[in-house]
Amino acid sequence: MSQDLISVIIPCFNTAKFLPACFLGLEKQTYKNFEVIFVNDGSRDITLQLLEKYCQGKPNCSIINQPNLGVSTARNTGLRQAKGKYIYFCDSDDVMLPNLLEVLLKNLKDNDADLSVCNFRHISEYGTPRLKPKKHTDKKVICMDRQESMCQLFCGRFLQTSIWNKLYKKDILTQIASYPKVFSPQVCWGGDSEFNFKYLEYCTKVVYIDNQLYGYRRRSGSIVHSHFNEKMLTNFFGISNIISSCEAKYPSVLRYAKSWEGLASIATLHYIFKSNYKDKATILYLQEQAKKDIPYIVFSNKNALYFRVFAPLGYVFYKIALCGRKVKTKKSKTQISSAKNPIA
Predict the structure, then answer these.
(1) Which pLDDT band holds residue 343 (cuts at 50, 70, 90)?
(2) Band (333; pLDDT cuts 50, 70, 90)
(3) What is d(CA 6, CA 10) in angstroms, rounded to the nearest whole number?
(4) Under a CB-based contact definition with an 8 Å cutoff, are residues 86 and 6 in contact?
(5) Contact 87, 173 (CB under 8 A)
(6) Could you tell me whether strands 6-12 and 86-89 are parallel, antiparallel, or unpaired per DSSP bridges?
(7) DSSP three-state, residue 116
(8) Which secondary structure element, helix H or strand E, spans residue 240, and what is its range?
C-alpha cells in the first residue's frame, strides 16, 4: 500500500483531561504517513498548553488557534489547511485504536471505494479502550452503492451519522459546493448527518468493516450528553435539507430520511424531558413530527430493530410525560414553525 498522506483534523475545546489518551492513540497508529491538525476552538482550560507541548518537535503536527466558533467551524478551519489526499476527523475526547487509519485506508483502496467506514465502541468518561490492534480481516467487509449507503446512514446499522469512524477522500470533499465550508456553522447539533449525506452524493461505492477501531467517549460535559438547550433545535436545519434533496433526487432514501427526522424529534423530546424547558410550540411541533414519522421508523425494514420497537414507545412516553410542561409560547429565534422551515 503506497504511503499516501492522511490529514487528521482534531477540534479541541476544553478537553485537556482527555488529550493524553488522544495523543496516545495518535502515537500508536500503525500507519505512519499522516499529519495532525489541532484546531483549538477558544479553550479556556490548559488545552492549548498541552497541544503546544505535544506538537513540539513533531513536524507533522500543527495547531490553529481561533475564538470559540463551534466544532463545525473548527473542522472547516482544519480542512482549509489539510494537505492530505485523505481526510480523517477525530474528536479530542475520544480514542483512535492503533490500526484505525491503516484498516480504513486499506479497505478504501482494496475495494476502490470513495468512503471507508468502521465500527466503534463506547467507553466511559474516564475509560480507555485497550490499545491493541486486531487483524483487519477478522470481520466481514460490506460494500454498498450510493443509495444503499444513504439508507444505511439513517437506519442505525452500518454507516451511522458520525464522522469519526470514516475516512474521506479530499478530492470528493472539494466537489461539495460549499467547500471548504463543508460543515454548516448554523447547525450546532447533529451536523454530521447533513455533511455525510452531502459527501455520499458524490460517492459510487462505500466500504464498511465491523471492527471496532474507535473509542467514543460518553462524556457528561458534551452537548450530546448534556441537558437540553435550544442549539439542539438546529439539527432540523440539516434534516430539512436532507429531506428536500431526497424528495428531488433520491425517492428510495426518503423514508429513511423521514425516519431519521422522527428519531431526532424523539431524541430532542428526551433532552427536553430531562430539562425544565417549557416552550409550548416547540414541544407540540416535536410531538407532531414524531407522530408523522413513526410509520417510516416502524415499517422501513432496513432500520435497526431497536429503532422500530422503541421509537413508538418513546413517542407515547414523552407525549404523556410532557403534557403538563407546556406554557404560553414566547417569541423566540428558535421557535419551530414547520417541517420545511424548522427554526425561524
Answers:
(1) very low
(2) very low
(3) 13
(4) yes
(5) yes
(6) parallel
(7) strand
(8) helix 235-249
